[in-house]
Specification:
Helix content is 50%, strand content 11%. The chain contains 23 helices and 12 strands. β11 and β12 form a beta hairpin. The longest helix has 35 residues.
């Protein structure tokens, strides 16, 4: 009797457990995708294949000058009939040895096509390929590369933007902010004609009266020409399949699309790039040009100061540059600012040089985003600073490969996990992907494997990249921390949205981009 009772009770418990299991919530697509990635994260090939296809939002820290692979630059140099000075491995103009003699000190660039060892030497000099840390500091080799290929780079801007866009499409990015000195050195040359005066208002008046408006008009026309070249290179708008913004190929949703066609759907905006290693009058003129250009041309969404932070002039004039930004921000308060700050490491500069750049860039330079931020723990009151960054939602553009190659900072020496601990917004970025011989997919792979990140962690950074982009309009998210949408709580991954949400999306380019990313996440997660 007792045994029969226990068997009956066990049967009821089993039935109850089965019912409870059947009524439990099935894992969501995101949870299933996360479990898959957790299983393959340590397997290089499978993790790479997963991350290659993963939607990644935007790349907010991408220098156009470093986004072009050396192989393409050799093609441009050959087309422009340039020479390569073997002593410095620099592309130069002038008389070349076009006979391609092995001992020639100044062979034509096209000789690289006939001499593989010469070709290899140029690629290695114009990038970090085959660089050896024991032979030469990464910092020195990296920055020297830009001077070596400057000539072939400067004459092919449209094609180079197209190359960067194609690579972004291959990485499943939908948005790129390219740092680019639009109009070349026009503003710097204008500044050189105006003697320096520490009265910023007077300097602005002099520059505006000396041709700044004309320089802006010329820069916009040049950007028009470059973007026309991009469209030609990508063949955008030449068919239904390649029309910019198109979502389907002529053969339907499953029709294959080339990288060029995908590139037509990548949105590109520009950050005006100021060369902070120039004399004060030229830096000020470039900063003014950036503010003015971003005020007039919606393609230019902000500005940034570039060149190595540890070089003499950028270190000497750092506070002066922040005061320039502070003054001009007061005149152009709607222009966005992202600043390189903390791309430093102990030993590169004296300790005091590490202690304030990030804080001053935010508090005085009005930076909404910080590029690199590697030396944050060497700042005065570092913990307080990170709390301030989290509260003010100042995003850090994390460039892991670049920081390793240039600064030798990686793994647990990098502040990435500390930023995460203090809830500072983060987004992965490529910096100079072609010089570094990397891409966004490998930045995601490095981050995931180095710091044990989940798919949800990576997804969060992709979302943050668009949340902190300088695209116009309100965010789709009322509260990105809790993924609360503005449109009455409607899920961003829904196939359709209400009329009110359609109206909201129509009025915000940023929200449209974010909604598109959620659609891409939903499609990606169905594969798992």
């Amino acid at each position: 009797m007792r045994q029969s009772y226990l068997l009956h009770l066990g049967f009821l418990v089993t039935i109850g457990s089965a019912l409870a299991f059947s009524q439990s919530k099935a894992p969501s697509l995101e949870e299933r995708t996360n479990r898959y990635f957790q299983n393959v994260r340590g397997e290089q090939g499978l993790a790479l294949a997963f991350l290659r296809e993963m939607p990644k939002g935007g790349d907010l820290h991408n220098h156009l000058g470093g986004a072009v692979y050396a192989e393409d630059l050799i093609d441009y140099a050959a087309r422009d009939k340039l020479c390569v000075d073997r002593a410095t491995m620099t592309a130069v103009r002038g008389e070349c040895d076009r006979g391609c003699n092995p001992g020639a000190m100044k062979p034509a660039a096209e000789c690289a096509y006939r001499d593989q060892s010469f070709y290899n030497a140029v690629v290695d000099a114009w990038s970090m390929r085959n660089w050896e840390r024991a032979r030469e500091p990464g910092h020195d080799h990296f920055f020297a590369a830009f001077e070596r290929f400057d000539l072939p780079f400067e004459n092919h801007i449209g094609e180079e933007i197209a190359r960067a866009v194609k690579r972004a499409a291959a990485d499943h990015l939908e948005y790129v902010e390219l740092m680019h000195t639009v109009g070349g050195m026009q503003s710097a040359e204008l500044g050189a004609k105006v003697s320096w005066n520490s009265d910023f208002a007077l300097m602005r008046d002099r520059l505006m009266a000396s041709g700044m408006k004309e320089a802006i008009r010329a820069a916009r026309q040049e950007l028009d020409q470059d973007e026309n070249a991009v469209r030609r290179e990508l063949a955008c708008g030449t068919s239904a399949r390649s029309a910019p913004g198109g979502e389907r190929g002529a053969g339907g949703e499953d029709a294959p699309r080339s990288i060029g066609e995908m590139g037509c759907n990548v949105t590109v905006r520009y950050l005006y790039q100021v060369l902070r290693g120039l004399p004060p009058e030229q830096v000020y003129a470039q900063i003014l040009m950036g503010f003015e250009l971003a005020s007039e041309d919606p393609r230019v969404v902000g500005l940034n100061l570039v060149m190595p932070e540890d070089w003499y002039v950028p270190m000497r004039d750092f506070d002066l540059h922040m005061r320039m930004l502070d003054y001009l921000h007061g005149i152009y308060p709607r222009v966005h600012i992202s600043l390189h700050a903390g791309e430093l490491a102990m030993g590169l500069v004296p300790p005091e040089g590490l202690s304030f750049h990030i804080r001053h860039s935010i508090e005085q330079g009005h930076a909404e985003r910080i590029g690199h931020g590697v030396s944050v723990m060497d700042e005065h009151n570092a913990v307080e600073l990170m709390r301030e960054m989290a509260e003010r939602k100042v995003l850090v553009e994390i460039c892991l490969t670049s920081n390793d190659l240039i600064l030798g900072v990686k793994g647990d020496r990098h502040p990435f996990p500390v930023y995460r601990k203090f809830h500072v917004p983060l987004a992965l970025a490529t910096d100079d992907e072609a010089v570094s011989r990397s891409d966004m997919t490998h930045e995601y792979l490095r981050a995931a494997q180095t710091y044990n990140l989940s798919y949800e962690d990576l997804k969060r950074m992709a979302r943050e990249s668009l949340e902190h982009s300088f695209l116009p309009g309100k965010s789709w998210w009322r509260d990105i921390d809790h993924l609360a949408a503005r449109c009455g709580g409607e899920p961003a991954s829904a196939a359709t949205v209400s009329g009110s949400c359609e109206a909201f999306l129509a009025g915000s380019e940023k929200a449209r981009m974010q909604w598109k990313l959620e659609q891409e996440f939903a499609a990606f997660e169905k594969k798992f």
